[in-house]
Structure formats: structure tokens, C-alpha cells
């Protein structure tokens, strides 16, 4: 058992929106590991960061990803930083991983600068740029398909993913 598609990408890339539409298109369930992490912790991701620290969040996130990769057969969306974990990267080998690529200006528009996202608290635009620059090579290295999302409707992105995953 494994997911049909695993979506990775920076905050604001559209993983949740596109993931739900893609799951509907494929007739499968959608699952988001950030939601799984929140359910286990009993609080939002931002509270986990503030109250328990990033290290604890990353532990919970890695376990959520491991479990979802083993249990879920639909479309799986990973939190933007999940790929920083080496064990997670190893687990993603062999999966249909799709990197939703987004430019900085689009990500800022989608995420918003008054965001509750914990890694973007101080100078969100600068933090988002650093985060995106650092993670891009990891996303690209893991992806079987890379789909640009800037200035595109979610349905167009879904069309390209479906086309890109065909044998």
C-alpha cells in the first residue's frame, strides 16, 4: 500500500488546494501530514512550534509522514519542511512525488505576510525566500514530476500532474 501521489513544495505552492482537487479527479482520498501532526499533538502547528519547539514538531511530522506513506493510498500532501528529514527523503524513494514549484511573489501572495506560519514570523518575505532557496534542490531531487504553479488555476495544475504521471 502506498499513496498514488505525494505532493511536496514550499508554503503557498498549493499542496492542499491542488491535492484535494487531484484526489477528487483520481477518485481517491486526500491526506495532509500537517493535519495528522496537529491531530496527534492536539494543537495547531504554530502552537507546537511555540510551545514545544521546532525539533519536537519535526519529530511529530516525521512520524506522521512515515505512517501516512505506509497507510494512505490516495493523494498525500507533506508539510513544506518534511523533506528536511533524511529518513523521510529515503522513504519517498520510489513514490510518485510531485513538486509544486512556486515563485516568491506568488508564495507571498498566497501565504500572506500576516501569516500564522511559525517559520515566517520575523520578516516573512525574507524568511520565505531563504526557506525556498534552501529547499528547492531537495524538492527537485525528490520529484518525479515538477509542476510550476505561478499564475495558474488549480485545475490546470491538476491536469499537468495527471499528464506528467502517465507512463
Shape: globular
- The H/E string reads EHEHHHEHEHHEH
Reading side by side through the largest sheet, how are the strands ordered?
A: 2-3-1-4-5
Main beta-sheet annotation: 5 strands, parallel
- Spatial gap, N to C terminus: 19 Å
Percentage of residues in strands = 5-15%
Helix/strand structural class = alpha/beta
Which value, in Å, is the CA radius of gyration? 15 Å
Low-confidence stretches: none
Total beta strand runs: 5
Share of helical residues:
55-70%
Global mean pLDDT? 88
Please count the helical segments.
8
Topology at a glance:
Elements: E1 5-8, H1 15-26, E2 30-32, H2 33-41, H3 45-52, H4 54-71, E3 75-77, H5 86-92, E4 97-101, H6 104-111, H7 124-142, E5 145-148, H8 154-165
Parallel strand pairs: 1-3, 1-4, 2-3, 4-5
Helix pairs in contact: 1-8, 2-4, 3-4, 4-5
In short:
The chain is an alpha/beta fold. The protein has helices at residues 15-26, 33-41, 45-52, 54-71, 86-92, 104-111, 124-142, 154-165; strands spanning 5-8, 30-32, 75-77, 97-101, 145-148. Helix 2 (33-41) packs across helix 4 (54-71) and helix 3 packs across helix 4 (54-71).
What are the main properties of this structure?
167 residues, 5-stranded parallel β-sheet, 8 helices
How would you portray this structure in words?
This protein is of the alpha/beta class and 167 residues long. The protein is 56% helix and 11% strand. The chain has helices spanning 15-26, 33-41, 45-52, 54-71, 86-92, 104-111, 124-142, 154-165, and strands at 5-8, 30-32, 75-77, 97-101, 145-148. It has a 5-stranded parallel sheet with strand order 2-3-1-4-5, with helices on both faces. The protein is globular.
